[in-house]
Write a structure and sequence with these properties.
Blueprint: E1 5-12, H1 20-32, E2 36-44, H2 55-65, E3 71-74, H3 77-80, H4 84-96, E4 100-103, E5 108-109, H5 119-152, H6 166-171, H7 174-182, H8 187-193, H9 198-211
Parallel strand pairs: 1-2, 1-3, 3-4
Antiparallel strand pairs: 4-5
């Protein structure tokens, strides 16, 4: 049987995103499972980075080596990473130490009640990782093919002069951006509260959605 100490691990890929929802949801999971949360690890970094480039992952692995917890709680597999091999290496390092990973979106644990690898979870994780890898490869191929055809047709790439980037637009509305992390309001109420047009509210929402992973 497993102990009751848990570490919460949350990741976002952009500073315009917030950990709050992930962390709050995982705290509720810990409460339901009657687990004691001993540390909350958050990081803002692309999930495609190598594990040794991710401070959050390195902190997690240090706690694993010290056997500071019995569980790692994550909202979904992609929070651990989007690189197939790096994610599987991380999972292996954790489960080899007999520490269980609760994959909340799948409702699965990586270890069974006897502390042995859960074959079902392992198969599902491998399949998800392979699907993600195949999607990225096909997506990249489609993008390159589209760009090649567009260039042949004389289309010029690059942001038109004077057009602001996604990040530049968000930086102009910091309080509005922050409100999406903590408040559930209608477009109209948010526009009135922050003295902007409904169109601006929708543009901020779409910009945040584009930054999400």
């Amino acid at each position: 049987m497993h102990g009751n100490k848990a570490v919460i691990f949350a990741r976002v890929s952009s500073t315009a995103q917030s950990f709050e929802r992930q962390v709050d949801d995982l705290k509720k999971v810990a409460e339901i499972m009657q687990l004691e949360v001993v540390e909350i690890i958050t990081e803002t970094i692309s999930g495609g980075k190598r594990n040794d480039e991710r401070q959050g992952v390195q902190r997690l692995l240090k706690l694993v080596s010290q056997r500071r917890m019995d569980w790692v709680l994550v909202s979904e597999v992609s929070r651990l990473g989007r690189s197939t091999m790096e994610t599987l290496r991380l999972v292996e390092s954790i489960t080899d130490a007999k520490i269980n990973i609760r994959l909340c979106d799948l409702g699965m644990d990586t270890l069974d009640n006897q502390g042995k690898p859960n074959l079902h979870a392992e198969i599902v994780m491998h399949m998800l990782a392979l699907f993600a890898k195949d999607w990225r490869r096909n997506h990249s191929d489609r993008v390159r093919s589209g760009q090649r055809r567009a260039k042949e047709a004389g289309v010029k790439f690059g942001r038109p002069k004077g057009v602001e980037s996604n990040d530049q637009f968000l930086l102009k509305h910091p309080e509005l951006v922050k409100s999406f992390r903590s408040e559930k309001l209608s477009v109209r109420k948010r526009a009135i509260l922050y003295d902007v047009s409904p169109n601006t509210v929708m543009k901020v929402k779409k910009a945040l959605d584009r930054d999400s992973v």
